[in-house]
Amino acid sequence: MATWKRRYSTVPIAKWQQKANLIGKETNRLSAAAARDDLNQMDYLDDAIIEALSDFDGWVQQQIDRARGK
Which of 12, 68, 1 is nearest to 40 (CA)? Predict the structure, then answer.
């Protein structure tokens, strides 16, 4: 079962998009690298989605097998 816990009370995608746009305009490479690292905070979301998708896929396959009498 998925163990994902929500980190934000609102959807942070707009904020991430703004940060990504600012990185493209940044002239200081170190600042751009630091800002990029800050955007990696969304990696947890990717992991959670993959885990939930895997759980769902397993459930669907179980239902298919049950319907086929396996």
Answer: 12
- For 45, the token pair is 């979301």
Q: How far apart are CA 36 and CA 30, in angstroms?
A: 10
Whether pLDDT at 23 is above 90: no
Q: Amino acid letter at 40?
A: N
Task: Find how far residue 6's CA is from the centre of its chain.
Answer: 11
d(CA 70, CA 65): 5
pTM, two decimal places: 0.47
Q: Rounded to whole angstroms, how far apart are CA atoms 56 and 36?
A: 31
